[in-house]
Design a protein that fits this description.
- By secondary structure, this protein is mostly beta strands.
- Helices cover 0% and strands 65% of the residues.
- The strands form 2 sheets. Strands 1, 2, 5, 6, 7, 8, 9 and 10 form an 8-stranded antiparallel beta sheet that branches. Strands 3-4 form a two-stranded antiparallel ribbon.
- Strand 6 and strand 7 form a beta hairpin.
- It is elongated and about 60 Å long.
């Protein structure tokens, strides 16, 4: 996962990108947009990607800890990943690509602050800090074509973050 966040006083904004692999828990069939039947087996891999914009408000913000609920919206997609040869990549099935929205909770614990050295003396040494971020959310997928795939996504992420600026 990767994200970029911006804080402005008590407002929290971010752009996030999550990617993960999932495995099917059972055998199932699905029909593509081109009316092709795909047979999937238990253990087949799927690539899940979610890109979203989030905005929230800090309920608690101290010198070392922040807690902000947020609302996120963006695009989520699920694609099969069963072919090993790169030339067969066009044979993979797009299970869905859909708008999503959902609530989440962002928490951040500042570990320590530091200021880098600038050998060029540009007078541009902004403060920085390292922190641990724990985010949890629930993405509501709005458009899924296949009944067997209907459902939403709960996620949690734990990240070590380097930030430029003051906490």
């Amino acid at each position: 996962s990767m994200d970029m966040t911006f804080d402005r006083e008590k407002w929290y904004f971010g752009l996030s990108v999550y990617s993960s692999y999932m495995k099917s828990q059972s055998d199932f069939s699905a029909t593509s947009d081109k009316n092709e039947l795909y047979e999937f087996h238990q253990g087949d891999k799927f690539d899940f990607t979610q890109v979203g914009f989030r905005g929230g408000y800090y309920l608690l913000k101290t010198k070392h800890f922040g807690l902000a609920p947020y609302l996120e919206l963006g695009n989520a997609s699920l694609r099969s990943d069963i072919y090993t040869d790169a030339q067969d990549n066009n044979k993979e099935m797009n299970m869905f690509s859909s708008f999503f929205l959902g609530p989440g909770l962002h928490s951040e614990l500042k570990l320590f602050s530091f200021k880098g050295s600038n050998p060029n003396n540009w007078n541009a040494n902004p403060p920085s800090y390292l922190s641990l971020r724990l985010d949890a959310g629930y993405s509501i997928i709005t458009n899924q074509k296949h009944d067997i795939l209907k459902g939403n996504v709960f996620y949690t992420t734990l990240k070590l973050a380097w930030a430029i600026g003051d906490f």
